[in-house]
Amino acid sequence: MLINSKSLGFIRTKILPFAIVSLFGIAFLAVSARIWLPGDMLSPAPVN
Fold this sequence. Notes:
Blueprint: H1 5-32, H2 39-42
């Protein structure tokens, strides 16, 4: 077998939660970066 159950358990218990929390943190930083944008960039993009 290419991946045994011990290494799969390590990935599932250590790496996967860290990856999920890291992805959430990156998304949170990207969304909260709007605070430091200039005022004219805070408004939505024009439609036409």
